[in-house]
Amino acid sequence: MLIFTLPSWYKTAKNPESCIFIYEQMKALQKLGHKIVVLSVQPRSVARRVSDEIVDDNGIATYYTYVPALAPSKLRGVFVAEFRKALRSLYAKAVKEHGKPDMLYAHFTFAAGYAALSLSKETGVPLVIQEHYSGLMSKQIDSALKKYITEAVRKADGFICVSDGLRKAITEKTGVDGNMTVISNMIHPSFRYAPRAPHEGFVFFSCGNLIPRKRFDLLIEAFAEAFAADKSMKLRIGGSGEQAEPLKALARERGVADQVAFLGHLTREQTLAEYQNCDAFALPSRAETYGLVYREAMAVGRPVISTRHGGFSGDWDDAFGILTDVDDKAQLVEAMRRMVKRYDDYRLETISEKCLLSCSEENVADQISRYLSDRIKG
Hints:
The chain is an alpha/beta fold.
């Protein structure tokens, strides 16, 4: 199958980690024998606008073009029109080189998925959209985005949500049920079971963008309440963002600055090492479409403390760890204490095995491959 992949954001030479999960999913589909071509429309400031380019990325032909950024969240209609025009141009170039595709496969409805609806209609090539956007879990979304999501679910030949929580949120906002399926995100093969490394004390690890939605402030407050008197207890936080300095100040204020380490931005290799060297993972996020970091920790064999953020649904198993209510500090304090006290009850290798049943590269790629193949028009 010749698949033209249409990401709303994608990695570049200057930012090789941007939406790296899309690239890795494409590599996994490539391993199954599919030919992949990526059509990447990149928002750029007018001052930094550059010419189109084509890159051979380990056997994946990647076409880049650039459109004015135009504050896309505020000028959605104008941005989508520019995106659609640029996408048509890339499609024409790619068809000349590789032939007409069997499938258009977009990631995120805004803007690639919605822009591709007209391209699919014009060319007769079926379109499947995979949605990842955590903002759709919010109670309210703006009217333009609601319109795009509603039309995409109704008109695309297939629509994949990365969790059942996301599917339910989209159904509630659009009133459209059906035409959606749930396929898990993929865990990179490097995240596999590793025995607990011997060390003194107990180490909690947490990772994510340092933004309000992740509730690192609540995590630090709960950690301080539970363990400020026990200096053998450690909390290591990976990530960068707007709350970095306020969170450091909070750790000092709560008297745990010497127990809480702020690690800054971590590479995948560094993140993996932190999972391997910790005892448990904890993150009290308010909302997640999927919750990749929790599953990476579980794939390594570490129990997790998570909120009921929407990213876990039918795939949660009590063997994985402890769930708390969103924004509930008392529950989080109790969960952290219980995790330490009853840690020996967790079977680390079993956690890894159960997690990977649903999100290993092989399983996810096979599900996506079959879903796309089933939606090719005869």
